[in-house]
């Protein structure tokens, strides 16, 4: 049977609310109905069993009371009719079912699918299918359902989520306590932004997509809430080097940081800027660190900074400043930070640069800020009214408040400016290693110095960084060193 889904995900994403709002109209405009979409959803799920889960013969489906359960009942019937052993465990009294879900239930019941309301033993199933909640999920998971999902995690069955893992919010990416953890999630109609970032990404497992035949009509009705740019569109913005270019026209990056005992961070950022193609890289660091930053990387111009006038001189020569790696927060750091706010060109601010920015309420004239969630919350301050768990709100709010591009790190890094958000595709668990952030800020600085616009540079840098980590981590994610990325960054940039 031909696969009715794809792992090649679209380049635009929407909120789960938009899908709910426009799915009916999109179905009508495509000459079909919602009940037909439910049949198509069930068929697409069934084709996954015919293609990727062929050996699965014993299947348990968990069903709620909404249309997500409707999809599960359609799938259950199709699986049963092809001779598989199928049980649907309904988590609600089936008399509560209405509309399309009720019809799908009745069809399954009439086809003699085993439908139970008492919890079966989970041990013997090859696949457990989650059809409990989809786009209609709100708030917290009832405790009993949390317990059930936790039991599911303990058994070896493959876990498949229908549309959205139950307990994940497809708009905000917020994951409710005890949410279902899938190995595969098949999502329908449009890519939901909430599945692509933060903890939600881990709950989805591999994400596959099917349009149910209404994507064109849907895209006519709804504006994407985020982009999800692929390799080609990101790399298409990278300026190429002409044969007659020379180091002085490939951008001069000044990297500021590396307080006592933190030479490694500034060295990684500086080397990353070189590896990402900056023509010249100057380093402003603590005088104690000059020799060790320079050691083995003689292409760097390393300066020990004793007073801020020295920094001013370096600032006057640079095209882009990267500040923060290993900077610290002591008097030396505060003086450098304060001076750095006079820089009238592009700044990339990371690590303690962000903490000083949050404390001092100073602003850069144009900046890319690269916080992780903790730094983002500090930048936000108290009483902001923003839902701190909602990565999209957090990134959008920071972009406005700091008039900056925001790179909100973490799985599915968000890159935001005042008018748009892109969700990064690359990345792996190895990204949680020391020094990874320092390297990222160096790459962003180098790409801007070579003439890329900050938003495009931040997007490409995050992508390259994640991809380099993925390639480098092929032999195991633990124990990977941040500096292992350098060779891959070089190759990726061609
Ligand atoms: N429309 C169609 O025909 C098509 C729809 N499709 C499929 O339908 C899905 C959307 O269906 P849906 O809108 O019915 O919502 P769904 O996610 O099943 O659950 C809603 C139910 O959950 C309940 N509930 C919510 N939160 C809760 C909580 N915290 N704790 C407890 N209960 C909670 C809520 O109860 P309520 O609060 O309203 O009483 C309500 O009963 C979509 O993801 C896709 O899979 C596709 O097949 C295409 C065609
Ligand atoms: K689900």
UniProtKB/TrEMBL annotation:
AMP binds at residues 409-413, 437. Keywords: ATP-binding, Isomerase, Lyase, Metal-binding, Multifunctional enzyme, NAD, NADP, Nucleotide-binding, Potassium. Its EC number is 4.2.1.136, 5.1.99.6. It catalyses: (6R)-NADHX = (6S)-NADHX; (6R)-NADPHX = (6S)-NADPHX; (6S)-NADPHX + ADP = AMP + phosphate + NADPH + H(+); (6S)-NADHX + ADP = AMP + phosphate + NADH + H(+). K(+) binds at residues 68, 130, 166. Residues 230-494 form the YjeF C-terminal domain. CDD domains: YXKO-related (cd01171). Bifunctional enzyme that catalyzes the epimerization of the S- and R-forms of NAD(P)HX and the dehydration of the S-form of NAD(P)HX at the expense of ADP, which is converted to AMP. This allows the repair of both epimers of NAD(P)HX, a damaged form of NAD(P)H that is a result of enzymatic or heat-dependent hydration. Catalyzes the dehydration of the S-form of NAD(P)HX at the expense of ADP, which is converted to AMP. Together with NAD(P)HX epimerase, which catalyzes the epimerization of the S- and R-forms, the enzyme allows the repair of both epimers of NAD(P)HX, a damaged form of NAD(P)H that is a result of enzymatic or heat-dependent hydration. Homotetramer. This is Bifunctional NAD(P)H-hydrate repair enzyme.
């Amino acid at each position: 049977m031909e696969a009715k889904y794809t792992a090649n995900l679209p380049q635009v994403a929407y909120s789960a609310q938009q899908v709910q709002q426009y799915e009916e109209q999109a179905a009508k405009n495509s000459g079909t109905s919602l009940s037909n979409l439910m049949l198509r959803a069930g068929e697409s799920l069934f084709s996954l069993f015919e293609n990727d889960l062929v050996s699965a013969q014993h299947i348990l489906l968990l069903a709620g009371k909404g249309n997500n359960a409707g999809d599960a009942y359609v799938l259950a019937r199709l699986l049963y009719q092809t001779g598989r052993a199928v049980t649907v465990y309904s988590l609600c009294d089936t008399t509560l079912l209405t509309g399309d879900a009720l019809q799908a239930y009745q069809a399954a019941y009439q086809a003699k699918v085993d439908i139970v309301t008492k919890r079966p033993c989970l041990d013997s199933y090859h696949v457990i299918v989650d059809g409990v909640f989809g786009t209609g999920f709100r708030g917290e998971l009832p405790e009993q359902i949390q317990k059930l999902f936790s039991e599911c995690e303990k058994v070896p069955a493959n876990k498949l989520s229908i549309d959205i893992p139950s307990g994940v919010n497809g708009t905000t990416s917020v994951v409710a306590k005890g949410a279902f953890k899938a190995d595969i999630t098949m999502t329908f109609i449009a890519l939901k932004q909430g599945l692509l970032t933060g903890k939600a990404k881990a709950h989805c497992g591999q994400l596959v997509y099917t349009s149910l035949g209404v994507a064109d009509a849907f895209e006519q009705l709804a504006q994407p809430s985020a982009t999800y740019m692929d390799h080609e569109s990101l790399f298409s913005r990278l300026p190429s080097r002409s044969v007659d270019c020379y180091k002085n026209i490939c951008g001069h990056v000044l990297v500021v940081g590396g307080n006592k005992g933190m030479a490694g961070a500034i060295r990684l950022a500086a080397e990353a800027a070189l590896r990402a193609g900056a023509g010249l890289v100057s380093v402003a660091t603590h005088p104690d660190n000059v020799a060790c930053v320079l050691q083995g990387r003689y292409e760097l111009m390393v300066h020990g900074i004793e007073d801020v006038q020295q920094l001013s001189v370096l600032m006057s020569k640079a095209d882009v400043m990267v500040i923060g790696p290993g900077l610290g927060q002591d008097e030396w750091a505060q003086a450098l930070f304060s001076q750095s706010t006079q820089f009238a060109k592009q700044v990339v601010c990371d690590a303690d640069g962000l903490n000083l920015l949050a404390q001092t309420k100073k602003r850069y004239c144009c900046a890319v800020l690269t916080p992780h969630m903790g730094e983002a919350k500090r930048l936000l301050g108290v009483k902001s009214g923003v839902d701190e768990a909602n990565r999209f709100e957090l990134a959008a709010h920071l972009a406005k408040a700091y008039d900056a591009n925001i790179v909100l790190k973490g799985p599915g890094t968000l890159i935001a400016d005042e008018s748009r958000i892109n969700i990064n595709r690359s990345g792996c668990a190895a990204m949680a290693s020391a020094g990874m952030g320092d390297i990222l800020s160096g790459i962003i600085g180098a790409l801007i110095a070579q003439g890329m616009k900050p938003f495009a540079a931040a997007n490409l840098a995050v992508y390259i960084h994640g991809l380099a980590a993925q390639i480098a981590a092929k032999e195991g994610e633990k124990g990977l060193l941040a500096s292992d990325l350098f060779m891959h960054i070089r190759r990726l940039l061609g």
